[in-house]
Amino acid sequence: MISKATTRRHDRGQVLVLVAVAMITLLGIAALVVDLGMSWMIHRQEQNAADPAAVAAARYINEDGTIDIGMARSAACFYAHQNQLFDASNTSCSAALDPNSTTLVVNYPPDASDPIYAGTPFHVQVKINRQKQIFFGRIFGVQTATVAASAVAANTKGDSNSNSLVALDPNTCSSGVVTGGASVTITPSIDPATGLPYPGGYVQINSGCGNGPQDNVCGVGEGNKALAITGSGSNLTAPKVFVHGTCSRANNNSFTSPLVEGAVQVADPLQQLQPPRISDFTPGQCGAGGPITSPTGANSHGCNFNAGGTTYVLSPGAYYGGWSIGNNVTLQLQPGIYIMAGGGVSLQASGSINSITDLAGNLAPIMIFSTDNPAASCPGGASYACQGPVGFTASSTLKVRALDETPCPPVSTTGCPYNGILIWQDGNGSNPSKPVTLGGQTDLSISGTIYAPKALVTLTGGSSGTGIAAVQIIAWQWNLGGGAVLKMPYDPAKLYRPKDKGLVR
Predict the structure, then answer these.
(1) CA torsion, points 340, 342, 348, 351, in degrees to nearest 10?
(2) pLDDT for 501
(3) Percentages helix, strand, coil for the chain, rounded to the nearest 5?
(4) Residue among 219, 257, 250, 211 nearest 236 (CA)
(5) pLDDT (0 to 100) of residue 21
(6) What is the per-residue burial (b if ≥16 Cβ within 10 Å, else e) of 293-318?
(7) What is the pLDDT of residues 439-472, one digit of tens each?
(8) Residue 319: which of 371, 287, 283, 289 has the closest Cα?
């Protein structure tokens, strides 16, 4: 029989074990609270330095996209001193001279650690890392921890992205293609303020595909490549070409450009651009006297322009179900924003699209935004209800230009936040990979930014004549072809220009 005294001693033993376990738990919580609190204070100190340091460094970004990196780092170092991250004697902010191994790094452009501005010109990144001694955490064998902060600042002065062609796909071979005997020439326009060509008109390929060496030579027949000049008689001329992988061309094709293989990948420069709200727009009408589209019901199937020989004049609005444009039909678009709420755009071979001209013959500024009908269940809904392809390839005429600074109601009555955007395939829609195709066999005149971050954009110059495409293509992949001379003048005044200046991240 167990005595009561023995039971009491046993109970006291259990209590001691429980107290010991509780003490260890409390010490663990104390370690977490105290050490995380100290880490947060150090991070706040670093961030207080990184933010003004990035802004100060951005002042040394030149108008041609270069930077005085020495002066930029000195400016960043000044603010690191102001926030007591380095001793006054450590005038160069050297990690080797710092007892905490604090590092100050200035990257131009920002490196891959920034998901939005990586590789983006006119943006500079400041990164600060510091080793912090752990206090209570040493109980568990943790001696130090790294506390990091970063900031990105811009000095774009309202310039557009300096690239004319951007293929965002990081993996696929031939994500940028010139084919079909196309002769593509990208030439910067002249800046009237300086009399010099604008800095830009570059080609950027993010794909790392490439079998051969990264020797900065677009070699003949080198197999699968990120940038491919294929077909017979295809040519590419550009101010600069940057390829993360490598470039290849067929034997009878030419490539005329300074080439950088193994280049830094860039992030989507328009990733943070907010789309227009469909609910703000009046439902679109399918021409004078035609049906007015609606989110539901019979009129949600879009506009069928199929009366040959007819010219339809359209006003801006939300076109539920999109457009189907038949043969020998002409669409004239008044200035403003056209939303394809499902269905996309289909243009038959002999159809034509023109934006209306003013008395001086200037094309009316427009933007076409392709997305889903918000009243539909997408993906999986009817083709007219969900995001569709945007097809503007015709055998006759395509003449359109992007929005300008003119107010674009209902989005804005003072200027337009989408100034410079011509076509936008919504990257957050249900079918963002639906392709965008543009071209004109006899008369091609288009200008503006074509933005399709998850889709293939195909641009053709036609089989005869000269196509003028003062465009910027920012897409998952792009393909230029058509067998004719395709001139692509780079003119920032006709492209989307994010007005980033100062701290952006």
Answers:
(1) -20
(2) 57
(3) 15, 35, 50
(4) 257
(5) 54
(6) bbbeeebbbbbbbeeeeeebebebbb
(7) 765 667 788 999 999 999 998 865 555 567 788 9
(8) 283
